[in-house]
């Protein structure tokens, strides 16, 4: 299959709508990361997403809608908290897990009776949903297990030959995937941290929002898995990544003792001049939003440079930093060295 990249415009957006209506798949920009979109109601179309990504069959997809009317087509009922959160954070990078509506294909939700829904704020994604009149299901547009793509070139690298069209809408704004929050119980539970934080949600809900332990610890043998995506290896570059958790002096001392060919550092802006090996930077130390924006690109650049071992500076584990830490610790296969 030939894969074509087209800049987002009237014509390419209409073509994306045609593909989706015809049961095909197309890569589209969102404000978080690029996604591979297909009609959420069409099980056969959804299967093409799983094939293109090499995604495990038991990992459900997120359904994207363009307005609140569409929500009623995809869920069975709307929890009260969902209205409050939608009012505050939609359109935007927040996915809410709710009871699944009958029209949504079982393939979309990997057989679960719940569905993850979000309303993207990216104008291209919005336009494709609104014009086609169809909610699309979309996972991140990477080969399963690789870092999510935040620009069209990175999508092409993974998806060339696997889908017909990539809509190029420029760099993604957030750079990490949406916050996933389950609204199936009394208190909301964050299953995947993202740009919308626990504190953001608590401030509008006036109740405690819980954090799933799997966010920072991974899933252990025998654990009940709330979000199937959390149990798989994720975001991994080819290199062996280690998070080296400590202050900069301790980090530097650690790397000085380990320097060798193929050893790289993933560090904060400005630190590279004081480190003895080649570095890729991912934002200022105190700017979790910049780190979120840059992390996946930085991991891909380390692959291009043929890094064998990467020592990474540890982000803050609060606010948006928790989303960065959650992705990085998976890229590092949970290897954390305390210094
Ligand atoms: O920002 C995003 O959410 C991007 C863009 C393209 O919208 N999409 C994305 O999709 O990150 P994906 O498939 O890479 O991640 C979806 C996550 C997975 O961890 C999956 O297990 C979880 O959401 N998920 C989806 N539906 C679920 C459900 N019904 N219950 C629990 N977890 C669910
Ligand atoms: Mg993904």
Could you say which small molecules are bound to this protein? threonylcarbamoyladenylate, magnesium ion
Spans of 5+ residues with little confidence (pLDDT < 50)?
Answer: none
What percent of residues adopt helix (DSSP H or I)?
Answer: 25-40%
Strand fraction: 15-25%
Report the principal-axis shape.
globular
Total strands: the figure is 16
What value does the average pLDDT take?
Answer: 95
Gyration radius, rounded: 20 Å
Query: Please, how many helices?
Result: 11
Order of helices and strands: EHEEHEHHEEHEHEEEHEHEHEEHEHE
Determine the structural class based on helices, strands and strand pairing: alpha/beta
| Main beta sheet | 9 strands, mixed
Q: What is the first-to-last residue Cα distance?
A: 49 Å
* Widest β-sheet, arrangement of strands: 2-3-7-4-6-5-9-10-11
Can you describe what's shown?
The protein has helices spanning 10-21, 43-53, 68-74, 80-89, 123-132, 152-159, 198-205, 214-217, 248-258, 288-304, 320-331; strands at residues 4-7, 26-28, 35-39, 62-64, 94-99, 114-118, 136-137, 165-168, 179-182, 189-192, 210-211, 240-245, 263-267, 278-281, 309-313, 336-338. The chain is an alpha/beta fold and 339 residues long. Helix 1 crosses helix 5 and helix 10 packs parallel to helix 11. The longest helix is centred in the last third of the chain and has 17 residues, at 288-304. The protein is globular. It binds threonylcarbamoyladenylate and magnesium ion. Threonylcarbamoyladenylate is lined by residues 30, 32-33, 35, 59-62, 93, 95, 97, 109, 112, 114-116, 138-140, 177-178, 180, 191-192, 227-230.
